Amino acid sequence: MISILRTIEELNHFRQKISGTVGFVPTMGALHEGHASLLRQARKQSDHVILSIFVNPTQFNDSKDLENYPRTLETDQILAEREGVDALFIPQYNDLYPDHYLYEVIEKKWSHLFCGAYREGHFNGVLTIVLKLLNLVQPHSAFFGEKDYQQLRLIQEMVKAFFLKVQIVPVETCREADGLAMSSRNVRLTPKDRQRAPLFHQCLKSAPSAQAARQKLEEHGFRVEYIEDWENRRLGALYLGAVRLIDNVKIEH
Ligand code: PAF
Predict the structure, then answer these.
(1) I want to staple 237 with a disulfide (CB 3.0 to 4.6 A). Which of 12, 79, 181, 246 is the partner?
(2) Which residue is catalytic, options 13, 32, 35, 220?
């Protein structure tokens, strides 16, 4: 039976009574098969799996995006149970931000590029909440999807910078049959946009350069934010209607 932990006290109590390795999957909910693959990896590698669901306001630079973020706790709990999660941590803002965000983690180099260039303060919010959650949960390993590649790399570097005793495990992007990267935002695509959304992945993969991928996507009517090559990956973000999608692929040489 899954334990539902609503407060830090309940989390501490759960954490004290278990022994063995703990795998942690932090999420903002609206769980889909991509999250399920993180949970499966955590299940494989750990004696206990803790999942957190918290829609973190400090990483949203657009209040509309925060408002519209899907909240589906009931179905999330069903998926968590199906994947054998031992504990679901669902804290409130005041539990996690007793300081009302007076303190934050600031990364001064990579967080301003790519997604960071378009979402001011986004990665400070991500790094701050991840640091808080890692400190609270005290996992042996924590699992993050490669779809959010910049986020994954910044978290890996933060863990090194602050000497955190946790292993960060990258998990490959889960895709729909047509190649679209799974995302909680996909449900907000109109049927027409959903149909052309896989072109994003196709262009990232097949274009000879980032610039060529951008051009192709713009020809197809996508509103491109950025397409850039970084660390042997091609990263991109774009809008389909009001929905912002991100993706990245390994660059094959
Ligand atoms: O990737 C996410 O869902 C979020 O950015 C995370 C890591 C849970 C922090 O809120």
Answers:
(1) 246
(2) 35
